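Milestone M4 deliverable, item 7.
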Amino acid sequence: MIRTKIHKSLPSIIAERASMVVAVVIVAALFRGCAGGKEDQPGSSFNGVQIGAITYSWRGMPSSAEDVLRYCRETGISSIELMGDVAEAFAGIPPLHAWPEEEARKRQREWRLSVPMEKYMDLWKMFNDSGVQIHIVKFSPAQWSDEEIDYAFNAARAMGAKGVSNEIGHEACIRLGRFAEKHDMFAIFHNHGQPGDPDFNFEEFLAYSPKNMLNFDVGHYFGATGKHPNDIIGKLHHRIFSIHLKDKTARDADPADTNMPWGEGDTPIADILTLIRDNQWPIHCDIELEYEIPEGSDAVKETARCVEYCREILL
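Output delivered:
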């Protein structure tokens, strides 16, 4: 078992090993893509812990649904939190840049209320046939009309997702929780640095609805509070649908609360993953790539490195 007291020395070992295998992982994925076949589908569940990614990780790269699927295959990722703009572009939403903002948003609202759900079922099939599950869609719909929020949950269901995600906040948790109950799905809430406020309490937001769940960003939590994320995970694991994994420096470090390549920050990623593994809690653990991409690399290569980092911990 990997224990908390050694987590500061372990990351550098894992990072070194991960860097050595990234090129092999990507080349093998590309070869499998040419060969085809279900046996060649990606797989990123290690000892019962599902490692995935939020597709925001690839925001600086071409981002069609087909591009995203290719990145999944190249990194070996088999589960994603899909950004809503990728899904809607696939389904044919009118682009914002085509009209003045007010007119464009009006056209988008009208489109959302008329688009056939078959478009999203086609998207689900494309990913599912390639062995990739969409477990959350990040529509961030808290400010949308009621009809658009209904659309968001219906579209997420058509893509095989269990819920939609949004930034945490009182109004968002109250409003989306009601719609999650209506659709028998989950409203899943992401934190940034809010837990750094001494008065912040996750349970207060969860209490608004039994269908409210957390998308617990352990890096932002650690960077903002300096506290071990396992305290929250152990207490609220039954209300955590997914975790965003990143490696940030500590609140009192120099620089403080800063995204770093995995293994170079202070976030106790090994402790977090082994806690989930040892308890077999059904929590999706999603890579969110936010550190500066090293020269000569790209976000897909770095995501593959993060997948390998997790695999080294869990196996």
